[in-house]
Amino acid sequence: MRLLIYSKALYSTWIYYSADRILFDAGEGASSILGNKAFAVRHVFLSHGHADHIGGLIGLINIRNTAMGDKEKELTVYYPKGNYLVTEMMSYIARTNRRLSYRLEWVPLEPGDRVEMLAGQLPRYVEAFPTVHVHNEISG
Fold it and tell me: What pTM does this model have?
């Protein structure tokens, strides 16, 4: 299956696109439901910092570090630049995961930023765009 979608409002939301190894948002339980596919994820794009969209990051990062599977694939997490809830999660993860066996990179995105997924004749990319989710939080 190329696309796996899970959403239960206020609890957990995420979409996994296997062709490009992308996880859009990382709600609670994402790594449990993905199982071994959690090791295939290379890019995580966060839309905003609410718990139902980032609460599964801890599990995803930990499972890739401690379970049996390919523990050396790097993971890049893209997030809306300036989102304070995501930066709080980044800080927590940095404090509690000091010995990762893979490279974890956090990349802030602004509206219009593009991340290339596939080059060539039919290039694919993810482009950040502004959204309004709640009035006092940066989302994209």
Answer: 0.90
